[in-house]
Structures are given as structure tokens and as C-alpha cells.
Amino acid sequence: MPSFASPTDGARLHYTDYGPAGGPAVVFLSSSYFGTEMWEHQTLPLASGGLRCVALDRRGHGRSDDVWDGFDLDTLADDVGGLLDHLNLRNVTLVGHSVGAAEAVRHVTRQDGGRVARLALVSGVTPGLVRSPDNPDGWDPAAMAAGNEEFRKDRHAFFDAGVDAFFAFDRPGNELSASRVRYLLDRIEICTARAGQALGDTLLTADLAAEMTKLRVPVLIAHGTHDTSAPLDLTGRRAAELAPRSTLRVYENAGHGLFVTHAEQLTADLRTFATEGA
Description:
By secondary structure, the protein is of the alpha/beta class. It has eleven helices and eight strands.
């Protein structure tokens, strides 16, 4: 099982590595709770088409170590750097979904060293969700904290209650089989309670607005019109306004889980983006 040691504390972190070793490198960072399996509708077709697709299991997720510490954005970003260094990847297209988008931005602005050539933010929570003087339309931090407390009380019920909104099942074209939904729920249950709680707390203070303005690489922003976990106007549109070299792709009727409901569209956009100038 491929893994490497976190440069911060030595935690063993699992990753997958698909496709030809010499192909253009695309590195995937997952949403909260998910591991590498969330990207199957992107990594498999892209790898079959000649791209090298690497995906990381964040600490406490998937097959990576269950640890107590390291769920702050700096450490998570350094874990991403450890993966890129371990595989000596260059000219990378770094793709992050939801909180993975925050990890991706923090990595590029913190310590990338020129390995990342392009950045794709998919349903990202960037630049931030919480209300602040610079983000007056953000969510009430007390309400976010209350949601985190609901997760602590019964994360299983929390996951079940959020499925319909996550995939925007009330919108046309977003139908998924009951079997697929059950599989995805089973996968997020693998995330440890500690990891899920700690990431929720991290989002209470995450504000990457200033960092977004410092990005010098091309940025693709893929976001759904009906994303309730990271509303388009609060995140995707703001991110596009802040990142100097950004392109915003708005996915009609898509929710937060567009990596499944709009898989073909996302895969095509990532293929084009990753091979531009490669």
C-alpha cells in the first residue's frame, strides 16, 4: 500500500497513484470525511487518457493514520508538500474539493517551491465561510459551532440528514442510485471522529482571502449553482474575484457533490485545464 511519512510528525499517509509515471501530474485533495475513492470518476478516466493521477488520504481519513494532531491548515498543507516531495512531482495540477481547496491554496502560498503549475478549486470553501469584517455575508460563527456540536453528538445522523442537500437531489439530473449513495455514506463513516470534529473546528477560523490574491498560477474554479455546503456567491464567486488568474465554471443545478452528479463535465474541465501548456 503506497504511503509516506508526514514531514511534520511522521504520520503515515496513504495515497493512490494511477496512470503513466511520465504523464502530466494531477494531484487530488478530498473533501472532509472522504478519502481517495471520492475521485474515482475523475482519476480513472484521466489516468486511462494518459495523465498521472495521484490522490491523498488526509490524516484520519481513508487508509491514513488515525492521529490526534495536525488538522490545522498549515500542517495539512505541509502534508500535501510531503506527498509532492515524496513522488518528486513537478508541473502539477493540484485539485482540491471543499476543505481540500483550502489545503491546496494554503500549500501553494505557504511552501510550494514551484511544484504546482495550476490550481483547481472544486466546490471549494475558499476563501472562507465564516462571517468577518471582510466577509459580512458569511455564516454566523455561532451557527457554525452549533452545527459542529450536532456532528459531535451523532455524526452518523449528521451524514444521513445531509445527503439530499449535498447532492442537490431536488434539482433535475442529479439522480443517483440508492446503492451509490449507500456506498458513499459507508466511505465517509471511515473518517475518524477526531478528524471530522477537528476539521469542523478548523473551518470556524479559516480565512484565505488575503492568500487568494497572492496566487500567481492559473486557477480553475468549478462550482455548483445549488451548493448549500459552500454557496456559490459566498465562495466560488468571491474566490474568482480574488485570484488574479482565475476562470470560473458554474455548473447548473449542481450541489456540493458535483464530482459525482456532474462527473463527466468536471472530468472534461480538469482534462482540458491539466493539459494546457503541459
